[in-house]
User: What shape does this take?
Amino acid sequence: MDLKLGLLTLALMGGLTMTTIAQTTEQQLPAPQTRGGKTLMEALTLRQTQRDFLPQKEIDAQTLSNLLWATWGINRPQLQKRTAPTAINSQAIDVYVATAQALWRYDAKENKLLLHKKGDLRCGKFKEAPVLFYYVAPPGDGWAKAHAGSLYQNAGLYCASIGLGNVVIGFKQTLEEIQSRCELPAGREVVVAQAFGWTK
Ligand SMILES: Cc1cc2nc3c(=O)[nH]c(=O)nc-3n(C[C@H](O)[C@H](O)[C@H](O)COP(=O)(O)O)c2cc1C
Assistant: This one.
C-alpha cells in the first residue's frame, strides 16, 4: 500500500491522528456529521467553560471535522453560507487550528485543513490542550469581535453536545504571543482564541 492510500485508509477508518496529518501540506477532513447530538436546549443547558484538559487525549479527525463545521462550516452549499452570520455576509474571519504538530487554516468549502506553519504553535496558559482555534480577521474590521463571538459560541455549543471541554481565551499576552509566533498573512490578526480538549 503506498503512503497516500495508507493515509486515506486510516482516515476512513476514523483512526487518523493529528500526528499523521502533520506530515502533509493539506488534509481532507472526514465529512462532518450534521445529524444527531443533543438538542439545542440540552446543549445550552450544558454549555460551560472547562479548563482541566487531558493533554495526551487527542481529538480524533471526525470530532475535529464536526467541531470545525459547527464553528464555521458551510451549512447551505448552494449559497456558500455558513453556520454563523456575518455583517453583510462578509465572512471575513478565518479559523486557524493549532496542534502539537502544526498550525492549519480551515478551508470550509473543501472541508480541508491547509498547512500554515509546521511546529507546535499552541500558545498561552492552555497550550497543553490538544487543539486550539485562533480566530483571525482583518484588523480594521469593526465586526471582527462580534463575528468571533458567534464562532466561539457555535464551537462551545457543539462541545456541550458531545462532552468536549473548551475555554475561550481573550488574555492579551496570549493573543500577542499568537500574533508574534504564527506569521499570519499580512493584514490579518488574531481576535480571540479557544482551547479544546477532553476533560478530567
Ligand atoms: C471573550 C472572552 C474571553 C475570555 N478569556 C478567557 C481567558 O483568557 N482565560 C480564561 O481562563 N477564561 C477566559 N474566558 C472564559 C470566561 O472566564 C468564562 O466564560 C466565564 O467565567 C463564564 O463561565 P462560563 O463560560 O462557564 O459560563 C473568556 C471568555 C470570553 C467570552
